[in-house]
């Protein structure tokens, strides 16, 4: 078996499983809470620990660089280790009995999948776009670069800084990355600039190096910054409903995206003329 296929299959399974479990939880009445509005129902406890541990296992799998995979027998052992011990705070004890069983069952499901794939010498699957969790040292170096090159302060950039927004910074409403074709436009520009991979740095959680085809500069809970090795552009999604672009990305979006003016953030003028 080609180890690349095992890695692709593991990532795809965990990403799909996470979406399935989140959707299942979203269908629970009252957000999975009991009548007191605080405690979880038994059904909720059978679901949310599962997507938490799936996310943790996916992070463990994506710490492995797809460009530098080990031999398949070593990779199988690493996948099984991820199934057994992929942890982050939301997957750590204490659990009650229902939650503990849910976590155990979900770990076993992934381990069984890995063993099933590994038992097929000719196993093949479709590719998955590149995504790798950065090491702590990599994340620290990228954050230093953001501060030095773009003036990012504690993960914040324009228009969230106290200073006026520079004229060459493009600030759009966050809806442009959800309702419009903004994400496609960003990817198009980066492809045309010859930028195959992008760094994504979040306010919390994992930081990533990822394929340009899955770059999505959107606010999804944590503040987010995007950059690449050329350091000549930046994207920043804030909790205040804005997404900002600087450098060559800003210039190219203004020059080539016909709908860009429709999405300009209405607070621009107020901040620009403090």
- Rg over alpha carbons: 21 Å
- On the 0-100 scale, what is the average pLDDT? 93
Largest sheet: 7 strands, antiparallel
Number of strands: 7
Write down the overall geometry: globular
What's the helix count?
A: 9
Which range does the strand content fall in?
A: 5-15%
The helix/strand series, from N terminus to C terminus, equals HHHHHEHEHEEEEEHH
Percent of residues in helical segments? 40-55%
Going across the major beta sheet, what is the strand order?
1-4-3-5-6-7-2
| Tally of individual domains | 2
Strand pairing plus helix content: what structural class?
alpha+beta
Unreliable stretches covering 5 or more consecutive residues: 270-274
Distance N to C terminus? 62 Å
Brief digest:
The protein has 274 residues and is an alpha+beta fold.
